[in-house]
Every structure is written in structure tokens, then in C-alpha cells.
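FORM 7B: Structural annotation worksheet

SECTION A. Query
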Amino acid sequence: MQNFCGLFRILHILSERLHALNDIIQAITRFVNYIHERPEEVLQRLGCAG
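SECTION B. Predicted structure
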């Protein structure tokens, strides 16, 4: 039974890590979409467009 509880704890920790990784992936996706939707604005903010 103790091994089962340890396994459950490990699975719970992995689940939390996957949720955090998913949040990071979603943030990167939103950032990339923003760049694709507004390339001129992004370039202007970077000082690359006049």
C-alpha cells in the first residue's frame, strides 16, 4: 500500500508539472500569434521599422 501512495504522489507532482508546462506553451503560442497578426507593430516596438 505504501508503494501505491508513493506512486500516487509522483503522478500528482507530474500532473502539476504538466499543467505548468501547458501554461508556458499557451503563452508562447499567444506571443507567436501576436507577432504574426501584428508584424509591423512588433517591428516598430523593437525599433526596426519607422
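SECTION C. Observations
Residues 20-50 form one domain. The first helix runs from residue 2 to 37.

SECTION D. Sign-off
Analyst initials: ____
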